[in-house]
Amino acid sequence: MNLTLRIWRQRGPEDRGAMVTYELADVSPDMSFLEMLDVLNERLILEGEDPVAFDHDCREGICGMCGVVINGQAHGPRDRTTTCQLHMREFTDGETIDIEPWRAAAFPVVRDLVVDRSGFDRIIGSGGYISVVTGSAPEAHATPVPKDIADAAFDNATCIGCGACVAACPNGSAMLFTSAKVTHLNLLPQGAPERETRVRDMVATMDDEGFGGCTNTGECTVACPKGIPLTSIGNLNREYLRSLTRR
Amino acid sequence: MSWTDEEVVPRVRSVAVTNDARPTSPVGIFWRSTIGKKAVMAVTGGVMLLYLLVHMLGNLKIFYGRESFDEYAHWLRTIGVPALHGAWFLWIMRALLLVAIVLHATTAYQLSRRDLKARPQKYAHRQRLEASYAVNTMRYGGIIIALFVIYHLLDFTTLTVNRHGVEGAAYDNIVSSFSVWWVTLFYIIAMLALGLHIHHGFWSAARTLGVHSAAREKNLKIAATVLAVLISAGFVTVPIAVLAGLVD
Ligand code: HEM
Ligand code: SF4
Ligand code: FES
């Protein structure tokens, strides 16, 4: 495949940045999207140019590092698929592909396609955990969890913190991410002791980080590689309003 | 373009959570948060929605003729008598609606400003949005509704801009206004905006208040559509009837 790539290049946080066009020949349809970028970078290095910076780690769709916006869609055209799991066969020979970083005030660009998603870490740091004495794992059957609760908690736990929801949202809102974390932990007995403070603090941090509010537009759930549903946001709202009536 | 220029060292902000300067009272926390403000929008929207439903049904009384409608309009000003004095009920309603609309508009403004700031840069490649038309008209539609409410009050409540403008003659005041084409057009546009606003708003408010669930999704969407169509169409029948000469 021969491709025309238009990629956002930005040297650093203070740089203005611009879309830069590259021609890339002989791309195999079996390459993943990131392998295609690797090939581009090797050629750029050979030509003495700076390679395109992009984030990635596991390359198997579980770490959440790799998101970029491809042709206006977070993680590209394939449903429920991270950028690293997207293959070039989704594109056609001769196509022009636009590649941009996540856009949100709370996710400033560090360089090229790399954004600073540490706002998510601070949301987690303010309540996305359970306080337990670590040590040997407790006997699994000591705390029974009904199957439907366990399933719902697990579905929400599959959120990989990639930030596609924020990137797709016209308000740069982190509600889907925060709702997945709150729903996951607040559903389970292990999360119960911190149920109120967790949701209160995570929402406060989410707001402080400069994410927008939710207008129930629904772009997030479409972009989400894990299919976190909008009902999780309804649940976050319910947990939040409930928490303010306690203690 | 070449990208071999000197490096700018990337910086990553620290991953520390600070809790300074956060309100501690439940009301303070509620009002400062995006979810709290959205809940205010949802509740005030619901109050206005209830009012509009009753208001629309009342308007249909115009089809019973001049006398019947004027009598009804007079009764509206005296509901609650003799338990409540004079026009007390009317003023209580007005105060309630004023609080609702001021809170609704204030939170709408604050949240919209925040939302626009949270997403300062557009994508070079246009996003293919999945959202419905109604979602994208909430802000402009809301402004149209606000302007309409002001005109509506000047027209039928204070009678300032009404062509007939006789107190107590509600029927003739209405007919005189809707005989002007642009008043009717503005009214119809505002009611379409209102319909769209309710179409997204009702269902959105259900999620905001956390009463929404996967099981209720379908019913809530149907209820939103039915309410939106009922209220828009109900209000619009009056000017249409005047235009068609059914009410004159
Ligand atoms: C002053 C005029 C008005 C303005 C400026 C306005 C503006 C807005 C805006 C910007 C939103 C948020 C939309 C979003 O989050 O996507 C909204 C939501 C809403 N509006 Fe209005 N609106 C007005 C009048 C009304 C009226 C008359 C009603 C009564 C039917 C209403 C009912 C609602 C409801 C139920 C919501 C949903 C709240 C939620 O999502 O939780 N609004 N409005
Ligand atoms: S909710 Fe979905 S899109 Fe958002 S961070 Fe989690 S996995 Fe990514
Ligand atoms: S690199 Fe880990 S999810 Fe894509």
UniProtKB/TrEMBL annotation, chain A:
GO annotation, biological process: aerobic respiration; respiratory electron transport chain
Keywords in alphabetical order: Iron, Iron-sulfur, Metal-binding
Cofactor(s) this protein cannot do without: [3Fe-4S] cluster; [2Fe-2S] cluster
InterPro entries, A to Z: 2Fe-2S_ferredoxin-like_sf, 2Fe-2S_ferredoxin-type, 2Fe2S_fd_BS, 4Fe4S_Fe-S-bd, 4Fe4S_Fe_S_CS, Beta-grasp_dom_sf, Helical_ferredxn, SDH/FRD_Iron-Sulfur
UniProt key word Transcription regulation: no
Molecular function via GO: 2 iron, 2 sulfur cluster binding; electron transfer activity; metal ion binding
Domain of life: Bacteria
Domain 4Fe-4S ferredoxin-type positions: 150-180
Residue ranges of every copy of the 2Fe-2S ferredoxin-type domain listed in the record: 18-103
Family: Belongs to the succinate dehydrogenase/fumarate reductase iron-sulfur protein family.
Official protein name in the record: Succinate dehydrogenase
